[in-house]
Design brief:
about 10% strand, about 35% helix, three-stranded antiparallel sheet, alpha+beta, two-stranded antiparallel sheet, about 260 residues, single chain
Length: about 260
């Protein structure tokens, strides 16, 4: 079992291995867009989720009206073209109850999906990769493809046992999110600029709230020369004498 944050990359047993196709797609990519991007012969159907609130509606003998296809989750309704396409499917296939339509809709979640996965597998195969065996996500497949294209004599070195603490050090210093000097909530003229209650002394009221976005600093940093060469470690308690790490991998770091 391989986890990434709160999600699972794979659940593997002695025989089958369960994979999540979303790990092979861009973030926020919908199922319908996935089918269109790979040029599948059919697309995902539409379904009146809010209208289907009772099992007795499976025996409904009339196709639901247009307004029942409004989605509370998305906050919008399907297009008229999508509605008439679904209605024509009902009529063309000779459906007699909504149960027939739901079976058709469920099949649309499977049949074109199989076609899309097959096309995606063949795409990666053209690059010399086995999509479902070589790795569990697109970043891993991309890394493998990169290694295949490296010219002879070019290699990348990882952290060795002698410097494995550097990995934890760098990871521990990766921070992000909201940075607030005081506490998170402030309101002009009501909250105080300190966590202590006001009875412990006269504290200044918040008079103004300013928000600054420092993301633009990343662009400035990317324009600066990148550090290259061997890693030098300086430890507290040893008068910070330079300690050279990782004899090998100089070419890789110089390239990076």
């Amino acid at each position: 079992m391989i986890r990434r944050d709160t999600s699972y990359l794979t659940l593997a047993t002695k025989r089958p291995r369960f994979l999540d196709i979303s790990n092979y797609l861009a973030s926020g990519f919908s199922y319908n867009r996935y089918l269109h991007a790979l040029g599948c012969s059919v697309s995902k159907g539409v379904f009146p989720y809010e209208w289907m609130d009772n099992l007795s509606k499976l025996d409904h003998m009339i196709f639901p009206p247009y307004e029942t296809f409004y989605s509370e989750l998305k906050g919008c309704i399907i297009s008229t073209e999508e509605y008439f396409e679904a209605w024509n499917t009902w009529r063309h296939l000779g459906m007699t109850t909504f149960r027939d339509y739901m079976k058709w809709y469920n099949n649309r979640d499977v049949e074109p999906f199989v076609e899309a996965v097959d096309k995606q597998i063949r795409f990666f195969a053209s690059k010399g990769l086995d999509m479902l065996k070589d790795w569990y996500s697109v970043p891993g497949l991309t890394l493998r493809y990169l290694f295949q294209l490296l010219p002879a004599g070019v290699y990348f070195s990882l952290y060795g046992n002698e410097s494995k603490k550097l990995h934890d050090l760098i990871k521990a210093n990766l921070v992000g999110g909201l940075s607030v000097v005081f506490h998170r909530y402030h309101e002009r003229g009501r909250t105080y600029l300190c966590l202590r209650p006001p009875q412990f002394g006269q504290l200044p009221l918040c008079k103004k709230v300013l928000g600054f976005d420092a993301n633009a600093l990343y662009l400035f940093s990317l324009m600066q020369p990148m550090p290259t060469g061997r890693i030098i470690l300086r430890k507290c308690g040893t008068t910070f004498q330079a300690e050279r790490m990782q004899t090998y991998g100089y070419m890789a770091r110089q390239w990076l």
